[in-house]
């Protein structure tokens, strides 16, 4: 009988150990599965993170896309603005034949007075319409002798368009141009042609 009791105790201990081992393995398997699930979730999060960068790229793409049209629109507006400036330039090209051209004569330069497009300019360029007639009136501003002549590219007076020299301050002179021709290149004061010299452009 005594020999049977130790065997029974051994069996009980072995069974207990087996149960404990099974429970331990089952326990390890459980966490292992949970850990397995967690990495699975982690992998699931990684695609989400991947999706976020994807969204970020999409967002970055959108601003870039938006930026490109915006820049394009801005450039387009810039071109439109330039177009408007060109239009303004075209509007100011030729002096209306009905407008009297007024200049001030002084030794340092011809001073533009009228029309407004040449006002306050020194030796302003006179843009005239070919075939039209104009009146150019100037006033002696400094009491020094001046006159006005229209010359060609060879510095020759065109069709006798020149006046006598006057030297009284405040005195005025008018040169009547019957017909503008493409020969006309400049208007000058003969005594002070180095400083009182303006261009004529014919359209």
From TrEMBL:
Please list the residue ranges annotated as the Blue (type 1) copper domain: 128-203
- According to the UniProt entry, which residue ranges have a biased composition of type Gly residues? 27-43
The Acidic residues compositionally biased stretches are 61-73, 81-101
- State the UniProt keywords alphabetically: Copper, Metal-binding
Q: Which SUPFAM superfamilies match?
A: Cupredoxins
Write the protein's name: Blue (type 1) copper domain-containing protein
Carries keyword Metal-binding?
yes
Gene Ontology MF terms: copper ion binding; electron transfer activity
The ranges of region (Disordered) come to 25-107
**Pfam family of the protein (one):** Copper-bind
User: What organism is recorded for this protein?
Assistant: Natrarchaeobius halalkaliphilus
Matching entries from InterPro entries are given as: BlueCu_1, Cupredoxin, TAT_signal
Q: Is Iron-sulfur there in the keyword field?
A: no
